[in-house]
Amino acid sequence: MSEHKRSAKSGRQGYRMTKRAELVEQTRQRIVAATVHLHGTVGPARTTVAAIAEAAGVTRLTVYRHFPDDEALFAACTAHWASGQRMPDVAAWLRIPDPGERIESALDDVYRFYEQAEPMLSHTTRDIEALPEFVRARNRKSAEDRVAAVMEAWPARQRTRNRRALVGHALSFATWRSLCVEQGLSRRAAVAAMTRLVTAAR
User: Fold this and answer.
1) Are residues 69 and 152 in the same domain?
2) Residues 6+ away with beta carbon under 8 Å from 113
């Protein structure tokens, strides 16, 4: 075989491999997008592999081929979902030295996020037992880091157990949902109320 023919054949094979890889990745992304949609509409506990396959337009076997277990699927889905969110900016909170201003800014940032992510957060909170342990552990770590970032602004003697508990309560999704969804407070009013509660703590 001439050098020219070998080169042409190699080029065709390379093109087919590239095209196949693109199709595989497109299928993977359809599965991830379908799963994220189902988690945000019916919740993780009611999201079956059959439902994912139907929504993605693939077979159940294809879903398992791309994601052999829940951990792999949830890892891809949480990364995909988070990439489309404006997450709370804890680093920005840390640049605010005044404790009252820091908790107010943190609450406004977190409550803004909750407003935007409410459908997904409501379903995943309700179905928390259906989440893999690594997801639950990561969520706990995020909550702890947010509390720590707010508490750091107070002098050591004012970082009391009561204040820490109230900061954790104020920053939680359940608190925001109770105040703003169930009781109908505006974000501004809810932030102000929780800021007063935390700053008054002893």
Assistant:
1) no
2) 85, 86, 87, 88
Locate the DSSP E strands across 61-194. Answer: none
CA separation, residue 58 to residues 31, 50, 189 (Å): 8, 9, 47
Number of residues that this document lists for the chain: 202
Write out pLDDT tens, residues 111-131.
999 999 999 999 999 999 999
Which structural domain range is residue 9 located in? 3-83
pTM score, two decimals?
0.87
What CATH number should be reported for the domain holding residue 28? Answer: 1.10.357.10
Asked if 170 contacts 107 with a C-beta cutoff of 8 angstroms, the reply is: yes
DSSP code for 134 = H
Of 87, 124, 102, whose CA–CA distance to 170 is shortest?
102
Residue with tokens 């139907």: 54
CB-CB contact of 77 with 132 (8 Å) = no
